[in-house]
Design a protein that fits this description.
The protein is of the alpha+beta class and about 80 residues long. It is about 40% helix and about 20% strand. A 3-stranded antiparallel sheet has the order 1-5-2. A two-stranded antiparallel ribbon has the order 3-4. α1 packs across α3.
Length: about 80
Amino acid sequence: MEIERAEALRIWLLTRWEHPEILPSEILRFAPIKALRESPGARAAIAILVKHGWLVALPQGLTIRGAVRKEAWQIVGRGA
């Protein structure tokens, strides 16, 4: 089940998300399926995508979309 959620998140990030990075709050608000709009499901999917190289953690304190962020990931595999 977690693999399917992670795959749904990966496809959504690659095909629908407009930014090269993603924040946890954005996943919780905009994810394509309800299970990813809850923190445990989102965290599990993120961990799978990080493990397999689809997301790369960005440095803490980076400014993204006008605010300093504690946690964010770069999306790997997007066309430039």
